[in-house]
Every structure is written in C-alpha cells, then in structure tokens.
Specification:
The protein is α/β, with parallel strands linked by helices. It has one domain: TIM Barrel (Alpha-Beta Barrel). The protein has 14 helices and ten strands. The protein has an eight-stranded parallel β-barrel, surrounded by six helices. Strands 1-2 form a two-stranded antiparallel ribbon. Helix 9 runs antiparallel to helix 12. The termini are far apart. The N terminus and C terminus are likely disordered.
Length: 361
C-alpha cells in the first residue's frame, strides 16, 4: 500500500548517539483504547479514530508513535497495531515494559524470562515482527543489570528490537547498565524517556548531563506538566470542573502552585507576542533544549492534535527563552547548588550549552 504524504518541513534528529532519525515531535498513544482508573481519563480512542490521528501525524512528518504494555493493559498497543496496519514501513514504534501486567511472581520486572515474554506479547499486539525503540519502563532492583542488558542485546541480535533505552531511571542506574554493556560489548542504551517540562526541570540536574556525556537522547513525556500548561489554568482560572487533573493528579509529577502560576504568566505573555497558544510555546521551548531528540505529544481528538503539531516550524527568540528560563527556575538541590552559586565550583563544571545557570539557583 502506497501512502501519499504532503511535503513536510518537520525537523528530524538523531536518537541520541544512534543513527536513527526521529521527528522532533512524536505521538503518544496512551489515549488509544483507554481503560482503567488512569488511562480512561486520558482518552478512549478507538481504531477508526486512531487511524485518522495516524494519518494526520504522517501528513505532518510525525512518524514515531510511543506506547507501552501497561497502557490500558495492552489495549493501546493493540489499537496502535491496527491503526498502522498495511503501513508499518512508514512508522517507527516505541514501546516499553517492566511495570506489572498481572499479580503473578513473573508478571513484573526485567528478568530474562519477563523481557522475552513481554517483547513477544508486544510484537503480537502490535502486529509486527520488530520494535524500533524498546525501553525499560522502570528500574528493576531485583534483577542483576547484566541479566537485563544481556537479554536486551540478544533480542537486538535476533532482530526483534532495533534500539533500546530506559525510562524513569536515576543516573546511577543508567550508568551501571551502560558500564555492564561496555564491559561485555553488549548493545548500549541510546534513549532515555523522561518527564521534562517548564514546571518540571529536574531532568537538567543529573540526567541531562549524563545524556550528553553518554549519548542518550531524551524522548520527553508530559511536556505540558501533566496537563497543567494547556492554557486552561492560571492565577485567574482555577482547575476547570471537568479537568482530568481532578482524577489523575496523584498519578503524575507534583507541581508547586506558585511555580505554575509564575510560568503561566510568562507563557501567556509570550503566546500573545508570537500569536501562538500557551501549549505551543511550552512545547517549542522544550524542542530547543539540549539532548532532546523528540517531544511526545498526545491528543484525544483531531483538533488537539493539529494544535500540538503547531508547536514546531517556528522559533522563540533569545529574550523570550530567557524569560521562560527565569520564570521556571528553582533552587538546585545538593550537590548541584554550589556549582550554580559559587564561581570556584562553576569553573570546574561549566553549564551545558543552551542550558545556562539559574540566577540564585
């Protein structure tokens, strides 16, 4: 089947230190087949609507689709698989495993048995013979890292996985895994799927420098701060009665209220200056950050998707970026704060290009 696509100006970047090119925006399929206490509030996109959303993404040059086995107990992968049927060659699939899929002793984690079974199940649900980007959804402290990385390397050698990475890992957990891979000549991680937003910049303290040093590209989830940077919340507008935050806030990252309002104040100013929306400005800021390979956008309908696709193809100016940087700045935790406050420390550990020191941080 030949897919006709419009000429697109979508930017593509290497996924970390790999040769794989990914679009700066990717699509999160967490809304597909939504069910359960969390995912039903994200969306309940069926196969027909999913096909339409995939069509719109491909027309815009967005060919990377992210999902996970735990999203609606596998339903997200199933709906995505049906939505891309007959056009597998046109898309890149990213999925994840490790979180519990049942109550059995081997229904969770990253053991050899669990990973092999999880990959086979994901391939079946997705209707494909390989996964382009596979990430561990969480660190499994009960399984030796050598067992985990050796198993992933075997799955890569078998052609079932193309590239591998992690999500929700701390810096030492990533480095321990990379050290094992380097020691044995196994496949290295090239991607880190992370939470990063204007109201959640913790990624910058350890994981961003690690990514730059070790060649891990960031695949950013929840770029709108778990739904707080949609433009519907501000100092004068409390959380709307129908917002999904009333049901899902406890599942996501916490956000200080004053920080949120401070950031939204500046987002609204910049949105007016650029004639863009608040979420478009928030996503555009992320696209320009160091180590970011792709920002995952979500949408429950066509209108939301087209709005989010408008986040790229234009640029914030340096002054606008500086204002957003300042509004979203928070005090650095130890041991980072002396490197941001004292010249002697800072001389030993200069900031990452494009990610300046925060005043007072």
């Amino acid at each position: 089947m030949t897919i006709q696509r419009k000429v697109t100006t979508m930017e593509y970047r290497n996924l970390g230190a790999s040769g794989l090119k990914v679009p700066v925006l990717s699509f999160g399929a967490g809304t597909f087949g939504g069910s359960g206490p969390l995912f039903s509030h994200w969306g309940t996109t069926d196969v027909e609507e999913a096909r339409r959303l995939v069509d719109i993404c491909l027309e815009a040059g967005v060919n990377l689709f992210d999902t996970a086995d735990v999203y609606s107990a596998g339903a997200s992968e199933e709906v995505l698989g049906q939505a891309i049927k007959d056009r597998r060659a046109d898309v890149l699939i990213s999925t994840k495993a490790s979180l519990p899929m049942g109550d059995g002793a081997n229904d969770w984690g990253s053991s050899r048995a669990r990973l092999i079974a999880s990959v086979e199940a994901a391939l079946k649900r997705l209707g494909t013979d390989h996964i382009d980007i596979f990430q561990l959804h969480a660190f499994d402290a009960s399984t030796p890292v050598e067992e985990v990385v050796a198993t992933l390397d075997r799955l890569v050698q078998d052609g079932k996985l193309r590239y591998i990475g992690v999500s929700n890992f701390s810096g030492w957990q990533i480095m321990k895994s990379l050290a094992a891979a380097d020691r044995h000549g196994w496949t290295r991680y090239v991607v880190n799927q992370v939470y990063y937003s204007l109201v959640g910049r913790d990624y910058e303290w350890d994981l961003m420098p690690l990514g730059q040093d070790q060649g891990l590209g960031a695949l950013v989830w929840s770029p709108l701060g778990w739904g707080r940077l949609t433009g519907k919340i501000s100092r004068s507008k409390p959380i709307p009665a129908g917002s999904r935050l009333h049901e899902t806030a406890d599942f996501g990252p916490p956000v200080d209220t004053e920080l949120l309002y401070r950031v939204v104040d500046v987002l609204e100013e910049v949105a007016a200056e650029t004639e863009k929306t608040v979420p478009q400005v928030a996503i555009n800021w992320l696209v320009g950050r160091p180590t970011v390979s792709s920002v995952i956008i979500g949408a429950r309908n066509e209108e939301q998707l087209r709005q989010n696709l408008g986040s790229v193809g234009w640029s914030l100016n340096a002054e606008q970026i500086a204002r957003l940087d300042q509004a979203s700045a928070v005090t650095a935790p130890y041991p980072h704060f002396p490197y941001r406050r004292q010249e002697g420390f800072a001389r030993l550990n200069p900031p990452i290009a494009g990610c300046p020191r925060k005043r007072g941080g």
